[in-house]
Amino acid sequence: MIKTRWFMLPVLVVVLALLAPTGIATGQAVKNPDTYVAVSFGDWDTFDYAWAYDTSSFEVIFNVYEPLIFFDGGRMDRFAPMLATAVPSVQNGLLSPDGKTYTFPIRQGVKFHDGSPLTAEDAAYSLQRFLLTDRDGGPSSLLSEWILGITSTRDDKGNLALKFGDLQRAVQVKGNNVVVTLKEPFGGFLSIMAQWSYVVSKKWAIKNGDWPGTAATMAKYNNPKKESTAFFEKANGTGPFKLETWDRAGRQVILVRNDNYWRAPTRLKRVVIRSVEEVATRILMLKAGDADSIALTRRELPQIEGDPNIKIIDDIPTGTSTNPAWFFTFDIDCRGNPDCGSGRLDGNGIPPNFFSDVNVRRGFAYSFDFNTFLQDGYRGKATLAKGMIPLGMFGYNPKQEYFTFDRARATAAFREAFGGQVWERGFKLTVLYNAGNVVRELGSRILKDTIESLNPKFKVDIRGVTWSTYLAAMDASRLPVFWIGWLADYPDPHNFAFHFFHSDGTFPHSQKFKNAEVDALVSIAAREPDVKKRQQLYFQINQKYFELVPSVATVNAIGFRNQRTWVHGWYYNPIYPGTYWYTVFKG
Amino acid sequence: MTVFIARRLLLLPLVGIGVTILIFGLLQLLSPVQRASLYVTDPRQLLAVDQVIRTHGLDKPLYIQYVQWLWNVVRGDLGWSETAKMTVARAIRTFFPATLELTLYAFLPIVVLGIWLGTISAVHRDRIIDHFSRLFAIGGQSMPTFVWGLLLLMVFYGAWRLFPPGRLSLDASLYVLSPQFRAYTHLLTVDALLNRQFWIFLDALRHLVLPVVTLSLVSAATLVRVTRSSMLETLRQDYVRTARAKGLEEPRVINKHARKNAMIPVVTLSTLLFVGLLNGVLITETIFGYPGIGRWGGNAALQLDAAAVAGFALLNAGLLVIGNLTADVLYAWIDPRIRLG
Amino acid sequence: MSVLAERKLAQQELPVTLSTWQIAVLRFRRNPLSMMGLVIIVGFVLIALLAPVLAPPAPNVRDPFMMPHAGYSPDPQPPRAGHPFGTTEQAFDIYYGFVWGARTAFRVGLIVVVTSVVIGILVGGVAGYYRGRVDEILMRIVDIFLAFPGLILAVVIVAILGPGLDNVMIALALVGWPGYARLLRGEILSVRERDYVEAARAMGASDPKIIIRHVLPNSIYPILVVSSLDMGSIVVAAAALSFLGLGAPVGYADWGQIISLSRNWIIGSGGNAFIFWYTVVFPGIALVLFTLGWNLLGDAFRDILDPRLRGST
Description:
The complex is a heterotrimer of chains A (about 575), B (about 350) and C (about 325).
Chain A: H1 2-19, E1 35-40, H2 55-64, E2 69-71, E3 79-81, E4 101-105, H3 120-133, H4 140-147, H5 164-170, E5 171-174, E6 177-181, H6 189-196, H7 202-207, E7 241-247, E8 252-257, E9 270-275, H8 279-288, E10 293-294, E11 310-317, E12 321-328, H9 358-367, H10 370-378, E13 382-384, H11 407-416, H12 421-425, E14 427-434, H13 438-454, E15 458-465, H14 467-475, E16 481-487, H15 493-501, H16 506-511, H17 516-527, H18 531-548, E17 551-553, E18 555-564, E19 567-568, E20 585-586
Parallel strand pairs in A: 1-9, 1-10, 14-15, 14-16
Antiparallel strand pairs in A: 2-3, 4-6, 5-6, 7-8, 8-9, 11-18, 12-16, 12-17, 13-18, 19-20
Chain B: H1 2-27, H2 32-36, H3 49-56, H4 62-74, E1 80-81, E2 86-87, H5 88-123, H6 128-142, H7 145-159, H8 170-177, H9 188-194, H10 198-236, H11 238-245, H12 250-288, H13 293-302, H14 306-334
Antiparallel strand pairs in B: 1-2
Helix pairs in contact in B: 1-4, 1-14, 5-6, 5-10, 5-12, 6-10, 7-10, 7-12, 9-10, 10-12, 11-12, 12-13, 12-14
Chain C: H1 3-13, H2 20-30, H3 32-49, H4 51-54, H5 94-130, H6 132-147, H7 150-161, H8 165-191, H9 195-202, H10 207-243, H11 255-260, H12 277-305
Helix pairs in contact in C: 2-12, 3-5, 3-12, 5-6, 5-8, 5-10, 5-12, 6-8, 7-8, 8-10, 9-10, 10-12
């Protein structure tokens, strides 16, 4: 009979499938004892230290390559020697008194993964290449700003304006040392170096077709295509792990132990990082032991709580991001913009300069129910922000006065706004967020509900848009109020002060916010060499941020870590882009 | 026959150009900054938008960009897919086999189940079995795919640890990536057998079960309906009545006479289904972490990766033309009265 | 008896002939599944019409389609007093969404189907009737649209236009019209050869008149069948788009959007896998019943209205 014959086939397939060795852990036996499996989502961009700017790529980079100095244990404000043998300071003479010349003595006896020895030449080349690469939207400007005094290596027409001589003078080899000379002193320079000064092998780079290190070839390797650099999918570093494969077909990256590491080799033989988009699937993998840790947000945390095989380490300070904050646009482009409504202060819209009145901004700020946001968005695990500098970073002032949920003050501020017209006529606008971001959507909803409850003439709509629309609208200053966050490029308050407050910074640029006094203050604070004085300056900046309220920071999240109970040795530094597997083992 | 096939294949470039013009036309609605969002993914890169536009030529008029793209395609360069981090051609080569394998394994149960249930429904029209199969079919189709997928995953993986997500387990995956394993077809089950690694064959099979079942649940429904209605029609035909009147037993009537003729619309649908499966896997692949072309295409569409979407469109156009061609050839084979061309 | 009276008597004794309409109704009533389909759809129509009564929106609410939320709890809560179907994450009331979602479902389904059918009839009609060059060109355009995978094309369109139900409707209509065009063209091709069309042409009737009075009414049946099946599948397709983040905004009374909120909760929590059953079951029931109803109705239409099946009750 046809039907029975054909029916047998799928049955056969299922039976066969069941016969496969299941690898099910019986009881508590450790699965894959010498291989760590981390499951996350998203994709890796490139493993080129001079090109990458996302945390996924850097999670791999910082396990495979090493910088000259690194962060000391779990501290963001203390540094330890890594490929340099000492951290430059005025006391040990490696930092010149004028704060501009840093000398890094290079460690001897370190080998790259291909066996070749590390020299000062390699370190200098790596830095110069980092500065030269300067790809669009890349990290090069972080160092070039202070080392070369420029934010772009190209002129207005897109041609290379950087001179080889400048590079050579700024980063020099002197014996076994690499000497870096800044154009201006910067108190946070070491924190940038600890995060971005990865060292690669010059010989290996040249052998694999990358920049030979000469003047003539500079233009070719400036702003290269991501896929054409030697470091895109291959790696040769000094780190505790080697990059074995970037399996794009299987969406996984495989790292393997470096047995010739200059410190004691790791106990893990392999690290496999897999990418699985669906969070429910990741959770099931963690529970089954097929994953040793997964990417998870606090909203999903209850689903793994109570599982005896999963350990949750909570109350981890994050300290490197101000996320989310919401921003006002001071001069909104209302042409053909439905988010402005009528474009006039007539109760059905807002004028382009709506947020130029500080009372409007204060009214919004005091209308936000910070505590409910904290409770329902973070399950209570967050602290209220005190401004743009996050808790845990130098320059954070725990005594700074900041906004709280205060209907009386909000109402008072609104009544003052535009000489009372805002209160009388009302307004209508849209708050936007990046679609899919649950927390920002929640924040928008909380803001909307409260403001609308203050005065029936206040109408706030909320809308989620795709990233492409959001980016374009931000770029064109078309968003009246928008939510976004900032992840520190390096653990120094200047990174936040500049991009939140200085008119050349990322957000003020889009908000069309400009205040000369603030600009001056931010510049001076960056360059102040005395640590105590510098802190005072950042306290002043915090106060100004509160008074001028160009944007409103909400909370500083408290992080957590999930891992199987058979994972040990993990430790934490908020600045890490991911897990540092050197000390981790399973057993 | 060959002329017919050749003429049909000539359609391919026409349809291909048409489809890609449609895509580029839609992209026309985006501003250069919106298109730059493919490269500027982090707020820290906001200030680089103008540079990105200049580097990638995103502000050139779209018809110029299209002509440039077309010229590259003719020379064999489908462009770079930012979402896949490799060339479009390589992305297709990398991800297509996975989906093909999944589709091939899903196709059989879908067709078998669909035809079987559809026939039974038609033959026992309006009885309990008919009602049941129709309800089953409709139920399968009316719930979003991810609901079935997650339910199955929860029961068969979460609770019983039988069928895991992904494509291969860790050990099998490491072996496949090692130089010892030679990939001939990139269909893991086939390659495993060719490499004489039976355990990898079983491992791959285990990972295929849940996605296949999910796809079957959702797609069998359409086939059940079409088979049912087609069989109903056929069973009313005069020649069937004649066969019955002649005293032929019912099973023979069905199998020998009715079924073959009822198969015509079923064949069309099956080939379209096959091609349709290749696209419908987007959600299934996302749920099960199965790295196939549906997931890549869907991601590319969401992030507006123009080159990838255009390449995906071309691939699909090609598959459809070949699919239609196969259907027509099968028609002619089933019904000798149909002349091709 | 007069001749007239005799003739009248004779007429009264002739067997009753039923009109086509009466045959249709008779067949419909005989088939229990068809009746079930009708009952289901009528039920949903009632729910949609009575939405403000069954689930009254809060006073002064600007958009009744936004589901009410008492608080912002990140976890779904089970059915309880005041929330008979439970609440989703962010405390949206599922019962409210179920009721008002019926309105959304009809709105989305009808708009998409009507738009697709109208465009399809225009294109397919012109192609089928005029044939030749026009047919070739139009059918190539149809092929081009069909060559692109439906869901992905919809994703591209909505990704470009922006998320939201309006754009979802546009996308689904653009994806759906080619099917109708092809269907109608096929029907017209077969109908135009029939005798009554020839006769009409011979009598000098103009083309549009022929199309509207003779060709269309006879080729319309398959479209009726397919469009009723489509009503269900469109709502499910919109649900798929919501899953990808491209559908109605979070909190909108749309079954697809509500069920896509369940995606993180399907696998349950801790030891209990089905603890959040209500986030899936209630919107799921709505989707299944809605699709079921339209499917049964569509099958019934086909069984009844197919001219080839007439004469064989």
